[in-house]
Amino acid sequence: MLWTTVAQTVELGWDFYVPVILFVALIALAVPVWAAIGSAAILMLLMSGDLPLSLVGERLFTGIDAFALTAIPLFILTGDVLVRTGLSRKFLDVAEALTCFTKGGFGSATVLVCGMFAAISGSDAAGAAAVGRMTIARLVEAGYPRPYACALVAAGACTGILIPPSIAYIIIGLVLGISASTLFLAALIPGLCILFAILITNLIVNRIYAYEGGGDLSFSEWLGNLGRSLKSGWYAFIVPGIIFYGIFSGRLTPTEAGATAVVVTIMMGFLLGTLKWADFPAMLVSSAKVNGVILPIIAFSAPLAEALAIMGVPQGFVTSATGLTEEPWLLILLMIGILVAAGCVMETTPNIVILAPILMPLAENIGMNEIQFCVMMITALGVGFITPPLGLNLFVVSGITGESILKIAARAIPFVLSMFVVVLFIAYVPAVSTTLLPDIYK
């Protein structure tokens, strides 16, 4: 009903529907997303005649000609170096020592190390792969069913795009013209809320099914374990410390923080003797593969977004949505529904580039702060990483364990529900995402 109203308001014709049908068909045929988006954009421009076809070539370059995007390959490379040097295992040791006093301690440690990895790499898939290889076998040994262990890692790795520094916030900042540093600051509390929601959900599930014991340490024993793990691995926290202090103090831009993190991590790897020159080709190729997926999507999404704007789709959506109801809480729920559904069928990057310009005017129309909207959008899309049919994190952990995606998805339902509750909290309580911001953004 809503889309019919949009079509009537904007007077959408075959010049819109045929490219959309082509896009859906190409995605269904497993054509790369960037190729599907680019094909739809070119066909839309050809059929509408509203804009010259030369716009595509121009926008391909201007869409990625941004200094902020340089941070993406740097954070991805930092994550790869972190794994190669073995520093990620130091995070796990500290997280395990920190949570060993609780029942379900190693499950909690798995979630925490996902958050620690997220604070460096900014990528959920990288976190799912790195943490999954370290923890899933040990989770199974501790008593967790393999599908649930996979679901726990997949859910924890969602924090990769939710806890700053995050690639997703860099992209949405570029699309909407908002400083990435500001978005990182706004996303800190919501990202931690998601992390603790997953942590608490695991503790509740573990208490119900008694997967893992523990929790019988005295305070002095726990403090001793924590002290020993920090003593042997404190230097691993230098890297996230540099990133957080540099960005949140304003001394470094995200790109500069990423570059500094790469250099420091490499130096630490050489000093520890865990990194060799022979490791560089594999690291660079791995990072290039991830980066090669993200940047073409951004490039080809730019002309498509501009074509949609010229056709008046964002304005039509606002008019149609407010025509259905003027209740802000219902319109917010509508946006969340669209974002969660979109996150289930498509990756975050194209969702951001396509949907952010469409939904942002509606958020502004109901008085939602632009920063709050960005945080709500990224968090809602993050739920899609553990929901079929796409569920990128589900595919990653399934790939490294051989476990059925459907079995993992079924065990991930409690985490989906807890994350959705946090999304609602962010959407209806502006202070969650604006408390740390200067007054000018509130």
TrEMBL record:
<dbReference type="InterPro" id="IPR010656">
    <property type="entry name" value="DctM"/>
</dbReference>
<feature type="transmembrane region" description="Helical">
    <location>
        <begin position="258"/>
        <end position="278"/>
    </location>
</feature>
<keyword id="KW-0813">Transport</keyword>
<feature type="transmembrane region" description="Helical">
    <location>
        <begin position="371"/>
        <end position="392"/>
    </location>
</feature>
<dbReference type="GO" id="GO:0005886">
    <property type="term" value="C:plasma membrane"/>
</dbReference>
<keyword id="KW-1133">Transmembrane helix</keyword>
<dbReference type="InterPro" id="IPR004681">
    <property type="entry name" value="TRAP_DctM"/>
</dbReference>
<comment type="similarity">
    <text>Belongs to the TRAP transporter large permease family.</text>
</comment>
<dbReference type="GO" id="GO:0022857">
    <property type="term" value="F:transmembrane transporter activity"/>
</dbReference>
<feature type="transmembrane region" description="Helical">
    <location>
        <begin position="107"/>
        <end position="131"/>
    </location>
</feature>
<keyword id="KW-0472">Membrane</keyword>
<feature type="transmembrane region" description="Helical">
    <location>
        <begin position="152"/>
        <end position="178"/>
    </location>
</feature>
<keyword id="KW-0812">Transmembrane</keyword>
<keyword id="KW-0997">Cell inner membrane</keyword>
<protein>
    <recommendedName>
        <fullName>TRAP transporter large permease protein</fullName>
    </recommendedName>
</protein>
<comment type="subunit">
    <text>The complex comprises the extracytoplasmic solute receptor protein and the two transmembrane proteins.</text>
</comment>
<comment type="function">
    <text>Part of the tripartite ATP-independent periplasmic (TRAP) transport system.</text>
</comment>
<feature type="domain" description="TRAP C4-dicarboxylate transport system permease DctM subunit">
    <location>
        <begin position="20"/>
        <end position="431"/>
    </location>
</feature>
<feature type="transmembrane region" description="Helical">
    <location>
        <begin position="234"/>
        <end position="252"/>
    </location>
</feature>
<feature type="transmembrane region" description="Helical">
    <location>
        <begin position="20"/>
        <end position="46"/>
    </location>
</feature>
<feature type="transmembrane region" description="Helical">
    <location>
        <begin position="412"/>
        <end position="437"/>
    </location>
</feature>
<dbReference type="Pfam" id="PF06808">
    <property type="entry name" value="DctM"/>
</dbReference>
<feature type="transmembrane region" description="Helical">
    <location>
        <begin position="290"/>
        <end position="311"/>
    </location>
</feature>
<feature type="transmembrane region" description="Helical">
    <location>
        <begin position="184"/>
        <end position="205"/>
    </location>
</feature>
<keyword id="KW-1003">Cell membrane</keyword>
<feature type="transmembrane region" description="Helical">
    <location>
        <begin position="66"/>
        <end position="87"/>
    </location>
</feature>
<feature type="transmembrane region" description="Helical">
    <location>
        <begin position="331"/>
        <end position="359"/>
    </location>
</feature>
